[in-house]
Amino acid sequence: MLKSHLMVPAKIATPNGTLVHPAYFLLVGIPGLGPNVHFWLALPLCFMYALASLGNLAIVLIIRVERRLHEPMYLFLAMLSTIDLVLSSVTMPKMASLFLTGIQEIEFNICLAQMFLIHALSAMESAILLAMAFDRFVAICYPLRHASVLTGPTVAKIGLAALTRGFVFFFPLPFILKRLSYCRTHTVTHSFCLHQDIMKLSCTDTTVNIVYGLFIILSVMGVDSLFIGFSYILILRAVLALSSRGAALKAFNTCISHLCAVLVFYVPLIGLSVVHRLGSPTSLLHVVMANVYLLLPPVVNPLVYGAKTKEIRSRVFRLFSQDSR
C-alpha cells in the first residue's frame, strides 16, 4: 500500500508565486503486471545487473593491466565500460528494489539526481561511441597516420571533452524542473526518473523544458549519430576500394563490435523517441522501450566486445585457466 502521508507537497515561496514540489514521486514498474510478476522479474534484473557489473569491470581491469591494450580503441572501450558500469548502478538497483518490495516512493531531489545522471551518462556514452567511430575511420582510411593522430594525450582530451559535454548540457535539467509546480499526479510512468516524464507532471508552463530538451537531444545525440553514420559511409567506401576481398573483410571486421554497440544504443533510443511522440506515455510499449534503452547496452556491450576482441577474450581464458590449476 502506498503511504499517502509521504506525499505531502513542499511549498516554496518565490518572487513569482509559490512553487509546489512533492516530497516524493511514485515510480511505476511495468503497467498491467501485478506484484507477483514484478517480484519474479526482479530475479532476472538482479542477474542482469551482476552480469553488467562483472563484465564491464572485467574489461576495465583487463585494459588497465595489459600494457599492450593501451591503444586508442581499447582506451575508448574502457571509458565506455566505465560509463555503462555507473549507468547500470544508477538504474538497476532501484528497479530491483521496486520490483522486490513494491515500494514506489523516490524522494524528489533523489529523483532529479537520478534523472540528471541517466541523461548525462547517456550523452557521454554517445560521445564515446562517436570517438570510437572516429578511431575506426582513421585506422582504416589513414592507417599510417593513426598513431600520430590518436596519441595518448589526444585520447585523454577526447574522454575529458565527452565528460564535460555530458555534464554541461544536462546540468540545467534539475534546475528547470525545480522551477515548475507539481499539483497533478505524482506518478512517474517508468521505473526510473526521466526528464520528459517529470516535466509532464507539472501544472505550469513547460515551454522552456520542451525547447531545451529538444535542443540538447538534437545537438548531442542527433549530431553524434550523424557523424557516426558519415564515418561509416567513408569507412565502407574505403573498404570497398580495397583490391583484396580478404583484406576488405579483415578491415571491416574490426568495426563489427563497435557497430553492435552503436545499434544497441541508438535503435532503442530512436524507437523510444518515436513511441514517445506518437504513442501514449503510459503504454506498455513505451515503458518496455525505455527499459531496453537503459538496461540493454551495459549488459550487451561487454559480451560483444569480449566475444569479438581477441586480446580481451584470450586474457579472460588465461584467468580461468589459472584459477582451475
Q: Figure out the total of helices.
A: 12
Order of helices and strands: EEEHHEHHHHHHHHHH
Work out the radius of gyration.
Answer: 22 Å
Largest sheet: 2 strands, antiparallel
**Low confidence ranges:** 1-8
Polypeptide structure, described:
With 325 residues, the protein is mainly alpha-helical. 73% of the residues lie in helices and 5% in strands. It is built from twelve helices and four strands, in the order E-E-E-H-H-E-H-H-H-H-H-H-H-H-H-H. It has a two-stranded antiparallel sheet with strand order 1-2. The protein has a two-stranded antiparallel ribbon with strand order 3-4. A hairpin with a 2-residue loop joins strand 1 and strand 2. The longest helix has 34 residues.
Quick tags:
disordered N terminus, two-stranded antiparallel ribbon, 12 helices, 5% strand, single chain, 325 residues, globular, 73% helix, mainly alpha, 4 strands
In short:
This protein has about 325 residues and is mainly α.
Question: Helices and strands in order, then pairings?
Answer:
Elements: E1 10-14, E2 17-21, E3 24-26, H1 35-65, H2 72-101, E4 105-107, H3 108-141, H4 146-149, H5 152-170, H6 173-178, H7 195-200, H8 207-240, H9 245-253, H10 256-278, H11 284-308, H12 310-324
Antiparallel strand pairs: 1-2, 3-4
Helix pairs in contact: 1-2, 1-11, 2-3, 2-11, 3-5, 3-8, 3-10, 8-9, 10-11, 11-12
